Amino acid sequence: MTECAQADFVAADEELNAAYAVAMDTARRIGPRGEETLRAAQRAWIAFRDAACEAEAVLWEGGSAQPMIRSGCLRELTAQRTEDLRAYAER
Fold it and tell me: Which domains does the chain have, with CATH numbers?
């Protein structure tokens, strides 16, 4: 189950990267400020995602389910962010 959860996160991360590339194209059309702000937002979001999922996983500290919980959280938040980036790119 842990391997499947990790594979699901990796797939979600690939989709996120593709959506981010399209969103960056939109940001670049806005100009340098658009690109800078989206890049800064994405970096801040990654830090948030990782910290939030670590906080969730720590509840399972020492248990065999901890890596699965972390990966599941990463996948879920990554999928949500992918949708946000897709919506950004449509503007």
Answer: 2-89 (1.20.1270.180)
